[in-house]
Amino acid sequence: MCSHESCFQPAQFLLLVGVPVASALLLAQCLRWHCPRWRLLRASWKLDSQEEPVRHPTPPPENESSRQCWPATLPEMVAFYQELHTPTQGQTIVRQLMHKLLVFSAREVDHRGGCLMLQDTGISLLIPPGAVDVGRQERVSLVLVWDLSDAPSLSRAQGLVSPVVACGPHGASFLKPCTLTFKHCAQEPSHARAYSSNTTLLDTKAWRPLGRLGTYTSRDECRIDLSHFSLYTCVLEAPVGREARKWLQLAVFCSPLAPGQSHLQLRVYFLNNTPCALQWAMTNEEPHGGRLRGPCQLFDFTGARGDQCLKLKYISEGWENVDDSSSQLVPHLHIWHGKCPFRSFCFRRKAANENEDCSALTNEIIVTMHTFQDGLETKYMEILRFQASEEESWAAPPPVSQPSPCNRFLSCQRSPAAAILELFEEQNGSLQELHYLMTLMERLDCASAIQNYLGGTQGGSPAPVRGGAWKNQGLELDEKL
Q1: Bridge partners of 246?
Q2: Nearest-angstrom CA–CA distance, 404 and 481
Q3: Cα 182 to chain center, whole Å?
Q4: Contact between residue 308 and residue 375 where contact means Cβ atoms under 8 Å apart
Q5: Which of 230, 255, 332, 435 is catalytic?
Q6: Where are the beta strands (DSSP E) in 303-426?
Q7: Which position among 228, 316, 415, 430 bears the catalytic label?
Q8: SS3 of 211, please?
Q9: Is the separation of the CB atoms in 107 and 90 below 8 Å?
Q10: Longest CA–CA separation in the chain, Å
């Protein structure tokens, strides 16, 4: 009996152990070939085991986080779209949802139509009267996407010249075409091509160029007639043999200079010349207490040249540069593909000697920087000047006034100072008036040169210009321009 039972024990053992093991191996094989998440983990293990990881041709800039998130769950997706489509009572909301920084507004529209606008971004969506049936109400949303990973994947010849905008709900259509309007920064409007991704915000994007019919580009604006709602943007594509160029805005930010503060950091952003790009930089600076210092300066950026150089040329007495180098580079594609990069310099107050009092010298800081594309320093270089003092009030930004024709003209000039000099030469303006004007423009180098010249020839400082005389001179300049 015992020997009979013992002869069956190996077979029972194989039956009890072998079948589960074989089933587990078969299940693992199925997961290996059919489960996307398993393949993703397997790929990441394979990359980790390699000695040298694969290098991407265009690494993300320092302010773009390379994160990888698991797909959203159904309740998370429902909550995401529900918040985007909830009416905002005319307000523009800035919020991070599902790891995406979004600017959005939503409302209900009926047969009378309506308009959605995102404040300070130049983005609007018009639903015309008659687009919705009488007696019905539709919820619509307008979303500015500040998630840089949602932008199109571009070649070296293509440049991003506008924001990524989503109209929702995705796929919605109306009885009449709706009109989406947003800004672009292409120098040649005919080179700006509208693109669309017929996907939702949370799906993998599939960008395709739109047909020319129903798409209009003016000097700085793109307008699209929509047959249905989706995602949209604008890409710079120059014809063969033509040079592609776009306008940048250079924005300088720093925190307030407080008494006794030993260090000060200055950040220069290289942004597309669109309102929403500047708003992104201001939002990015809020956690650090950074404030925009002075007006942005235009820069003529070309896609066929090298990296952007930023050189520190002058620091006022009593301060020194903490960084090892006085020159920094921004990769060309980070700017060309609209990644909104920035570079920073850090300064500190010099320690005063026993016989020297630097307190009077360090209560303000003046910095001059030069920026240009590599290889074009002698052809086109922009001069950035920064000045801050402890006495300045940082509580509120200066009031915004309507720019005069003269201001609009000068903002489009490569060298506003050179344009002013030409106008003064034509009108036989005095050096005293020119000194006063350069001081107002914060061109302290020009003002100092004029003052030194007047001091050497006349033995004194420039005579004060009367307010009425300067006002009349300003009116003459406006008429001339």
Answers
A1: 186, 301
A2: 10
A3: 15
A4: no
A5: 230
A6: 308-315, 319-321, 327-330, 342-349, 364-373, 382-389
A7: 228
A8: coil
A9: yes
A10: 130
CA distance 104 to 123: 10
Quickly state the pLDDT bin for 351 (edges 50, 70, 90).
confident
Top pLDDT among 16 and 56 is at 16
pLDDT for res 69:
55
CA distance 378 to 47: 45
Per-residue pLDDT reduced to its tens digit, 124-154 = 999 999 999 999 999 999 999 999 899 999 9
User: What would the pLDDT profile of 204-260 be if each residue is shown by its tens digit?
Assistant: 999 999 988 899 999 999 999 999 999 999 999 999 888 999 999 999 999 887 777
Q: Are 44 and 38 in contact (CB under 8 A)?
A: no
Residue pointed to by tokens 């009885």? 175
Is the pLDDT score of 5 beyond 50?
A: no
Token digits of residue 74: 């159904």
CA dist 22 and 392 (Å) reads 77
Question: Under a CB-based contact definition with an 8 Å cutoff, are residues 382 and 370 in contact?
Answer: yes
Q: How confident is the model at residue 377 (pLDDT cuts 50, 70, 90)?
A: confident
**Interatomic CA distance for residues 242 and 221, integer angstroms:** 21
Non-local CB neighbours of 277 within 8 Å, separated by 6+ positions: 163, 249, 271, 338, 340
**62 pLDDT above the threshold of 60:** no
- Phi and psi, residue 249, nearest 5°: -120, 130
The pTM of the full predicted model, rounded to 2 decimals, is: 0.68
For the chain, the average pLDDT equals 78
Q: Which residue has the higher pLDDT, 442 or 65?
A: 442
Tracing tokens 């698991």 back to the chain, one arrives at 70
85 an active-site residue? Answer: no
DSSP structure class, residue 189: G
Alpha carbon distance 110, 381 (integer Å): 52
Neighbours of 163 (CB within 10 A): 28
Is the bond into 169 cis (omega within 30 degrees of 0)?
Answer: yes
Q: Which helix (H) or strand (E) holds 477?
A: helix 467-480
Is residue 467 very low, low, confident or very high in pLDDT (cuts 50, 70, 90)? very low
Pick from 223, 226, 272: nearest CA to 251:
272
In this structure, which amino acid lies at residue 478?
D
Helix 2-34 vs helix 36-49: angle between axes, to the nearest 10 degrees?
Answer: 90
371, burial (CB in 10 Å: exposed 0-12, middle 13-18, buried 19+): buried
For the question of residue 230 being annotated catalytic, the response is yes
